[in-house]
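Rotation project, supervised by the postdoc (A.L.). Task for the rotation student: set up a whole-complex structure prediction and record inputs and outputs verbatim in this book. Inputs entered:
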Amino acid sequence: MSETTAKRHMGLKTSRAITNTTIHIVLIVISIIWLIPFVCIVLQSFRVENTGQVGYVIPKVWGTANYSNLFQTDFPRWYTNTFIAALVTAVLQTVIVLCMSYTLSRFRFKMRQPLMRFMLILGMFPGMLSMIILYRVLKDLGLTQENATPGLILVYIASSGMGYYVSKGFFDTIPMSLDEAARIDGATRAQILYKIILPLSKPIVIYTILTAFMGPWGDFVFARYIAFGASAGKNVAVGLYDWLSRDQISNNYTMFCSGGVLVALPVTILFMFLQKYYVEGVTGGAVKG
Amino acid sequence: MKQLSDLEFLKLSKGQKFGYKLGRFFTGIPRAILNFFLKIWGFLKKCGVSIGRECADIVSTFIHGDWKTKTSFFIMGFGNLARGQILRGLLFLLFEIVFIGFMVISGGYWLSMLPTLGKVGPSKEYNELLDVYVTKYNDNSFQILLYGVLTIFFIIAFIYTWRVNVKQNRIAEKILATGKKLKSGKEDLHSIVDDQFHKTLLALPMTGIIMFTVLPILFMILVAFTNYDGTHNGYTNSLFTWVGLDNFNTMLSWSGGSGGAQSYAATFGEVLIWTLIWAFFATFTNYFLGMFVAMAINKKGIRFKKGWRTILVLTIAIPQFISLLYVSKMFAKNGIINGFLMDMGWITQAIDFFGDPSKPWLARITVILINIWIGIPYLMLITTGILMNIPADLYESAKIDGASGWQQYRKITLPYMLFVTGPYLLTSFTGNMNNFNVIYLLTGGAPTNAAASSASGNVGYTDLLITWLFKITTGAESKYYLASVIGILVFIVVALISLVVYNLLPSIKNEEDFR
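Outputs recorded:
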């Protein structure tokens, strides 16, 4: 190796080292920016000297009063509401989405293309619009205000068939030859689904359950519309939102933080374990559109 | 603009090429729209032809059919029963009985009231026994409209079933004529899990979609032609009725409202323009920054790749309402951000990020910046997978040819990404147009737009069409009819954008290619 190339080699090496260090620093900064709000919210949930909003982060007096105070409010009730809604929705929505996506991926029937096009157009209407009528109808059925949870579950699952894209993309990747082989062996189409496709679809089933659970867990707008005005029917999102309204914020701000921590904790833990499936679903779904 | 051949195009300079592409894009728009209408026309023509064919078929079935078939025209399922297909016959018969029963008991009433949406509103009646006036509720416009639409759905379903019933007779006759056997009830039941399995699977999801999406949307489209609002709720205070195109006139006319209030059209224009700007920046800032973060993490020699990714991915898990609400309070006048800036001595007076009507753009830019914080983790995830799919030899050969990092990005990464994620970008753009959560939870639409808000539901400078729609439907006045008009207009805008972009996208892939 001549001296000049060695020098150039060294130059390249140092320049690469510099780039990499810069990128590392940028990534550290990014991580800090992304984590700051969550660190702040945890810190402030332990602040007991003042229940309102303050301009500093580190509490002056630490304590768990904000957590224990939660149980004197309607928060446990909201938490139960949300949990029930999310759990039921996770199960039923998964069934519906899988039915829909499996059918649209596996079967070739006459109405298939028109159906998919129709749902694409349907998706262009703002979903908010149908809330007005659904509210009135659910009210007639007695499923609003205090009894909002069953009404909400109905709203969440009823239209969930429209979100079939990601799992359809997954089913599309399972070779058709599997189905054909089973057909030759005399399996009915239902047997093919239960005995062959479903065991292969664990990642997408878990992904669907996870997203179906997280939707109601963090839903704000539908819950606000349907539980309108009644504290017993609220979910955590609506309840915590109201704590930050102008006349409540000075008393409930730190309680909002502690409530937020309690709401975020279970999904974050769930997410940590199932992260792999979520990543697979998101990356796979986006490529196939 | 005239289409150039490849050779002519290559001769152009860089600027000319760009101009040419831009020109082609815009001249493509009218063609795309024209194509769309031609498609609709073709669709209608096809519908007309097939309806005509069906009618001819029905008539010929009646003329050539035997007495069993002829009776089936009036008593559904009779042919099936007479030919031994008991299960099918009973189902048809049951459906006919239910339909006739429904039409006699209530369907006829709903249909007859549909043109007026109710005649008698609530009235005060004197109750002699108690010596008070009692409100007596009569017609209910809301129910009339809702059940009227349902009745029409039901009639269409009936006509379809009747047609199937007639067709089955014809087929059965043909099969028997060739000496074969008809399917038994047991075989019919078996086909539910086999030949007809797709119908079984679709039954539940489609019922949900029709009842909870199609019907409400249809209903709300109709509401746009009525005067349904908080003061005409159709039952307890006064009935609502058809008003034709009045609401569209209100929304789209430029003449100002009473008391110097801004006209609806002006407000609509302002909100629409902001919605489009927001959707553009929210989509593309997230897209490019997310891509850069993903590329940075993917880069050779970066350590703790999994750690960086996990940190970002975990922020997706935390429900948006918590992070959005918390961040919105961080930016409040007495929030942490202002506290920090003042401690540092960079500002002396707290900045009112979301409350200052004289600085609408401060609020708007802040919202876009916060949205980057929300969106990057998700985009990082999506792009990571695609970036890894780019064949590595492309980069190798580029490096050998001496391409710089930026050139590699411009010539390899970006075109590949845009090609693959084209459809995603489109849905993301329209999704952002309707991004209720971010705007409503962050700012609630603030700062208030004083000129526009007096007449049109407290609209603010960061309000999107969707949050405006929401605001209009809450509160005492609750102008549902205006909300429907906005909803329809949103649909038209979204559909137009999708149509144009979709036709121009290079990556309209044939889905069968995956097999």
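Student's summary: Chain B touches chain A through 101 residues (CB under 8 Å).
Supervisor addendum: Residues 6-52 of chain B form one domain.
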